[in-house]
Specification:
Elements (H helix, E strand, L loop, with lengths): L1 H19 L5 E2 L1 H11 L6 H15 L6 E7 L14 E10 L4 H67 L5 H33 L10 E2 L12 H7 L4 H23 L4 E10 L4 E9 L9 H66 L5 H36 L11 H4 L5
Parallel strand pairs: 1-4
Antiparallel strand pairs: 2-3, 3-5, 5-6
Helix pairs in contact: 1-5, 2-4, 3-4, 4-5, 4-7, 4-9, 7-8, 8-9
Length: about 425
């Protein structure tokens, strides 16, 4: 009785789920990625970063303004200098002249900082798209498992009907009927868990674009495994990896900062010109001036050494990152080839054998030549083989996604041709 109530509750829950999702709305990978690009919270900050970087470039082009100097001497004294009788008034304009190409080097440094913001955006964009693709692939896997669970339940229900028919003729014990019902209830609980996981994954996917899910299923077929580029081609694509490009930009920033520091070590000069009025002699005169600091020692010697060391460190880090990425690409490429072989073996060797075993066992059971436990064992072998196919195909696509992140370049992931260009194309 207790088992019957549990089964009834599960059936009611499944019926409610079907009613709630009677109207199916499909989401494609291209749509999911497009929504991520438009609404991902991390990507939305970069337009402001770009504008600030542009403002820094404008700031770098600004040159020193001229200065107005007013000097009044020999006033408010005693004797001949009382009041303004002997006043000397000097008005002059002075201009600082930057030497060592300071302005151009400031601008170059600001431009490299702007490039660093673009590199950061590419990295954040790649991470956002990869995270969305990961959620999407996980949802595809769960949908396949849901279909697998439904098929398994249908077979078990058919088996239960067959067993109940034999039970009426007295050829089967009640314990065997209970055993089949127990297997069926377990499968229905597994289906309920998968359905709940799908609901959770839908919300996790929609959270990538800061919204509630407005779709019920995602489109795609993980059973189709794309062909991979040659390993040598992948190693060539490594130069386009956004992380390595960011290291290159950081190295250029360090070099530009070092050159600017060297320029700042060169003293600027100042010219001035003006007029002078002498009230005592009622004379006017033109005055000129020139000044330049005496740099008896380099004021930026320590800073230059630190910046040169930083530049060398960045170059070393870039080399190490390139080597590490190259090895990881080779590892993931080999993993994909091994997974392809696994999928082929399970799909073309293990699964057909499991189907044949199940069919032969069912015929023997119907003819009274095989016991129930042997038939249930054959049924379990088939269900496990079907799940192995799904899991191995899913691992292939997840590994392929990791390989795309390493290279920073798209590969044709799935059977859906519409997905090919949008996912990782540049804006």
């Amino acid at each position: 009785m207790r088992m019957t109530l549990t089964l009834t509750a599960l059936l009611i829950a499944a019926l409610c789920s079907q009613l709630l999702h009677a109207e199916t709305t499909t989401l494609t990978l291209a749509q999911a990625l497009q929504r991520t690009l438009q609404h991902d919270i991390n990507l939305l900050t970069f337009p402001y970063q770009f504008r600030m970087a542009e403002a820094e470039e404008v700031q770098a082009t600004i040159t020193p303004n001229p200065e107005l100097d007013v000097t009044l001497e020999n006033v408010l004294g005693t004797g001949e200098n009382r009041a303004l009788a002997s006043a000397e008034l000097t008005l002059s304009l002075s201009q600082q002249i930057e030497l060592g190409q300071k302005r151009q080097r400031r601008l170059t440094l600001a431009q490299h900082h702007s490039q660093l913001q673009r590199d950061n955006y590419q990295l954040a964009r790649l991470d956002a798209l990869a995270a969305t693709s990961l959620q999407y692939l996980q949802l595809l896997r769960l949908q396949r498992l849901q279909t697998w669970a439904n098929d398994k339940i249908a077979r078990e229900q058919a088996l239960l009907s067959t067993a109940e028919g034999r039970s009426k003729t007295g050829n089967l014990l009640d314990a065997d009927i209970s055993r089949i019902r127990l297997r069926l209830v377990r499968s229905q609980i597994e289906l309920a868990d998968i359905t709940q996981a799908i609901e959770s994954r839908r919300y996790r996917l929609a959270a990538r674009w800061q919204a509630a899910p407005d779709f019920t299923v995602v489109a795609g077929d993980i059973s189709i495994l794309p062909m991979l580029p040659a390993l040598s081609a992948l190693q060539t694509q490594l130069q386009h990896n956004p992380a390595l490009q960011r290291y290159a930009t950081l190295a250029r920033i360090a070099q530009s900062q070092l050159r600017l520091t060297e320029a700042n070590s060169k003293a600027d000069i100042r010219f001035s010109a003006g007029v002078r009025r002498n009230e005592a002699s009622n004379d006017n005169a033109v005055v000129f001036g020139f000044s330049m600091p005496l740099t008896l020692s380099d004021p930026n010697q320590g800073r230059r050494q630190a910046e040169a060391t930083e530049q060398a460190l960045l170059l070393r880090q870039q080399q190490h990152a390139r080597t590490e990425l190259s090895l990881l690409i080779q590892q993931q490429w080999l993993n994909l080839e091994q997974l392809r072989g696994t999928v082929h073996a399970v799909n073309n060797l293990l699964l057909p054998e499991a189907k044949q075993l199940r069919q032969a066992s069912l015929r023997s059971y119907q003819q009274g030549q095989l016991d129930l436990l042997s038939l249930l064992s054959a049924e379990e072998e088939l269900a496990q083989a079907e799940r192995d196919v799904i899991e191995s195909q899913s691992r292939f696509h997840l590994t392929l996604l990791e390989l795309e992140q390493l290279t920073g370049q798209p590969m044709i992931l799935t059977s859906t041709a519409a997905v090919a260009a949008l996912e990782y194309s540049n804006d």
